[in-house]
Design brief:
Nucleotidyltransferase, domain 5; 2 domains; six-stranded mixed beta sheet; disordered C terminus; RNaseH-like_sf; Integrase catalytic domain-containing protein; Integrase_cat-core; Transposase_IS3/IS150/IS904
């Protein structure tokens, strides 16, 4: 008789094909390409895509030739892909940067969101808005406010500013990218986990997040409060 290892041939807790497919599909999305293994596991669970540990995610990616260089790929892209800014700024509206700050409230895990568009040459806030919503619609509204406030609707596209932003979901949304294309604006992205790529507006964001007193939600505006064309 041929020797066979006793017990079941496949462990009861083995990864299912559907789980592997879910991990591969989620990890291959454009908005998750820079996620670490730990973040993939967390965000996958939050999205109800799969419920697996980071080590299981690593195993699935390695089996498909994707896991070994995930961290290295982020590090390499960090070295290579700096935002494509103008080499030298000589005046306003040549390069803008924008970000979203979290304003604490007196309710746990409830925030207001401050959207700011900053001119890098003058440090002027060309547009801002505070909203209870953290989504790409508000981001598109900020861009629209800035263009109108600076009177850039009717100028040649080559004279429009380059816009620097990080790789947040709102910045990478398809509708936002399409808006940049339609307006003739150049959108360029900072590198993952490299705050020095977008230092000017990030400094303002950190000041807001660290030093503003918590806001009582009931006393804050209902919806969106915005103001354009007024320097801060």
């Amino acid at each position: 008789m041929a020797y066979e290892k006793p017990g079941p041939q496949q462990p009861a807790h083995a990864l299912m094909p559907a789980e592997k497919d879910a991990v591969l599909s989620f990890a291959g999305r454009e908005d998750t390409v820079d996620y670490s293994l730990q973040l993939l596991a967390i965000k996958g669970a939050e999205a109800n895509a799969f419920y697996l540990s980071a080590s299981s995610v690593r195993l699935i990616l390695q089996e498909n030739g994707l896991g070994d260089d995930r961290t290295g790929r982020v590090r390499n892209s960090t070295r290579r892909n700096k935002p494509d800014r103008p080499d030298e700024l000589t005046g306003p509206n040549q390069c803008w940067c924008w970000d979203v700050s979290y304003i604490k409230t007196d309710v746990l895990r409830v925030f207001w969101y401050l959207y700011v568009m900053l001119d890098e040459w003058s440090r002027k806030v060309v547009a801002w808005r505070i909203s209870r919503y953290h989504n790409h619609e508000e981001a598109m509204g900020l861009i629209d406010d800035a263009i109108i406030a600076e009177g850039l609707l009717d100028i040649d596209k080559e004279n429009l500013p380059v816009v620097v932003n990080d790789r947040g979901v709102q910045m990478k949304a398809k509708d936002v990218k399409q808006m940049f294309t339609d307006l003739g604006l150049t959108q360029t992205f900072s590198r993952p986990r490299t705050p020095n790529d977008n230092p000017f507006v990030r400094r303002e964001s950190r000041i807001v997040e660290l030093f503003f007193e918590p806001v009582v939600p009931s006393t804050a505006p209902t919806g969106t409060c915005r103001m354009s064309n007024r320097p801060v």
